[in-house]
Amino acid sequence: VIPMSFPEDFKDRVKKINEHLMHSMDVIEDKNLKAAMSHYPSAGGKRLRPLLATMVCEAVGGSWEKALPFGVSLEVIHNFTLVHDDVMDQDDTRRGIKTVHAQWGIAEAILAGDALFARAFEIVSETDADSQKVLRLNTILAKAVRLLAEGQQMDMDFEDAKKITSDDYMKMIERKTAVLYSAAAQGGAIAGGGSEAQEEALFEFGRLIGLGFQIWDDVLDLRSDEKTFGKPVLNDIRNGKKTLIVVSALEDLRGLERKEFLKVLGNKKARLSELRLARDLLEDVGAVEHAVRVANELVAKGKDRLSVLKESPQKKALVEFADYMVTRST
Ligand code: IPE
Ligand code: IPE
Ligand code: MG
Ligand code: MG
Ligand code: MG
User: Fold this and answer.
1) What is the pLDDT of residues 177-198, one digit of tens each?
2) In 230-247, which positions are buried (b, 16+ CB within 10 angstroms) versus exposed (e)?
3) N or C: which end of the chain has fewer CB within 10 A?
């Protein structure tokens, strides 16, 4: 059967991705390092980036396996950035388990992240694909991580910055988050032998839905619960993150409400009741709904880019993938 609906019909593919992913850790001899490196990969996760790469690969006419090593390397890079991101954001839970630094300490988290990062580049080279393609894929990965670091720097800098605009925010999430989705889609098109026009349009598809994905992640930080989400909620407020939600609320909040909100935003010692109050203020001022609208618009624009693909079940699955970015609960 040809896969049709996302994510239900992609369970077998996720299994294959996971096999490749877990096997890619076999080369690590040191028991402690291997445990820290495998901690997130073995704990689950949606595998959205490898899925996107393989789905695009198919949609341009390749067999999905052609994008498997590249997809796995993206997942390994993603996991490396999560390990370091959790240190930066001081989060104790990820994928429903303890974060790497919470379990082994910051030094181990730095090292495990480094090793995952390096391993990703080996994985993409461990294929029989022609060397020209491998070089291009490796270059895409390197550029994505370089931009991602800039995005993470902006994310941290914005915590203490007073005047952040929605343009600043979009620039930041394009780098910290959307780059892995544009890389997934572009790399998938390359692996599958797509045309240059397809490569370009699919890069843009990945970028746009990746922006929507991050805005939705910010929404879930406010609307989900730790059990469902697998990671702490309301921590973006505690950390003073300048999400689109916060940026637009700061344009609208006035008087006492504004004062109350600013008292909680970025207050590392804020109590749960205070965080909930701040969240309610964001909801009441309409900032969360505004962000949801923006995320949906971005995904809609992204889907327009799929016009470079001929009609097929694979294209339909990509449309569903895009919708999933802003409807997922985890
Ligand atoms: C979490 O990404 C990090 C963000 C960019 C918001 P995912 O939501 O894809 O996390 P996993 O891989 O499913 O755990
Ligand atoms: C995601 O930012 C960006 C990266 C992990 C590179 P977040 O900080 O919002 O991700 P979560 O919410 O911790 O997964
Ligand atoms: Mg972060
Ligand atoms: Mg984080
Ligand atoms: Mg988040």
Assistant:
1) 999 999 999 999 999 999 999 9
2) bbbbbbbbbbbbbbbbbb
3) N
